[in-house]
Amino acid sequence: MEKSRLLYNETFKVEETIATEWLTWMKETQIPNILKTGLFESFQINKLLFTEEDGGVTFAIQFICQNMHNMQMYQRNHVNHFQTAMQADFKDKYVVFRTLMEIIE
């Protein structure tokens, strides 16, 4: 039986005043560094089309992972570093929630 690939989703709601700066930082710094771990095969950046009443811009960053072992390695050895890096530059300017899904097709 083939092992399932996984989609790791991080949804961020960032303050409008820093949305452009945050997205540039994600593209130029954070995502390349995450990919350098070798634990994800690809990524995608999505932006929510509609804004919420309380403001902010919502992005979903999705990473494709070959298997649960790689995901566990990322969580065990890397996730704290990347969360700390984001907090250092954007403290109290965003909220995030994370989900892990199995890719069916």
Report the sheet-strand fraction: 25-35%
The helicity comes to 25-40%
Radius of gyration: 14 Å
Low-confidence stretches: none
Assign the structural class, choosing from mainly alpha, mainly beta, alpha/beta, alpha+beta, or little secondary structure: alpha+beta
Tertiary shape: globular
| CATH structural architecture | 2-Layer Sandwich
Strand tally is: 4
- Predict the CATH topology: Alpha-Beta Plaits
Q: Average pLDDT value?
A: 92
Properties at a glance:
alpha+beta, single chain, Alpha-Beta Plaits, globular, 105 residues
Structure explained in plain terms:
This protein is α+β, with helices and mostly antiparallel strands. The chain has one domain (12-99): Alpha-Beta Plaits. It contains three helices and four strands; from the N terminus they run βαββααβ. It has helices at residues 19-35, 68-77, 79-90; strands at residues 6-14, 42-47, 57-65, 94-102. It has a four-stranded antiparallel sheet with strand order 2-3-1-4. The protein is globular. The model has no long low-confidence stretch (mean pLDDT 92).
Helices and strands, with pairings:
Elements: E1 6-14, H1 19-35, E2 42-47, E3 57-65, H2 68-77, H3 79-90, E4 94-102
Antiparallel strand pairs: 1-3, 1-4, 2-3
